[in-house]
Write a structure and sequence with these properties.
27% of the residues lie in helices and 0% in strands. It is an all-alpha fold. The chain folds into 3 domains: 36 residues, no CATH class; 31 residues, no CATH class; 36 residues, no CATH class. The model has no long low-confidence stretch (mean pLDDT 82).
Length: 147
């Protein structure tokens, strides 16, 4: 397929040698503006797009609020809960554990689910309310499990 005649534009040809974007631009204003280069944020190691005064949205908000860039090395700050390897979110917890502390006042322990049906001599996989699919349907239909 043919490409747009504007240098640096790899879009497919639509009309009069232009892609749809450039054709509509020429139709509306009579001229085509140059391609803007995607410029990244001024802050070192930030890969977000430049938004205002050379900074991304996050870093510009830091400048407005604190008059400086706050550097945080996320790789060294992990959640304080044992065996949790998520990044710090607030008060030394990751987002999930912080919400648990906020809601319950403590980090809740995830309970182990029963993996097989709770009916005696049934080894089928758990489906709902502790029953396998077959026994769960019986429970829903009759209100009890038929042996």
């Amino acid at each position: 397929m043919k490409k747009c005649s504007i240098i640096g534009c790899d879009n497919h040809l639509k009309a009069r040698g232009y892609c749809l974007k450039h054709y509509l631009q020429a139709l509306r204003s009579g001229k085509i503006t140059k391609l803007k280069k995607e410029i990244l944020c001024k802050v070192e190691n930030c890969v977000d797009k430049n938004n205002v005064k050379g900074y991304c949205k996050r870093h510009y908000a830091q400048i407005l609020n604190h008059n400086k860039i706050i550097k945080v090395d996320k790789t060294s700050i992990l959640c304080s809960v044992e065996n949790c390897f998520e990044y710090h979110y607030a008060k030394s917890y990751c987002a999930r554990h912080y919400q648990q502390v906020k809601r319950n006042g403590k980090v809740t322990v995830k309970e182990e689910r029963q993996k097989i049906c709770k009916v005696a001599d049934c080894i089928n996989k758990h489906y709902g309310k502790g029953y396998c699919c077959k026994h769960y349907r019986q429970f829903k239909r009759h209100g009890f499990v038929v042996q």
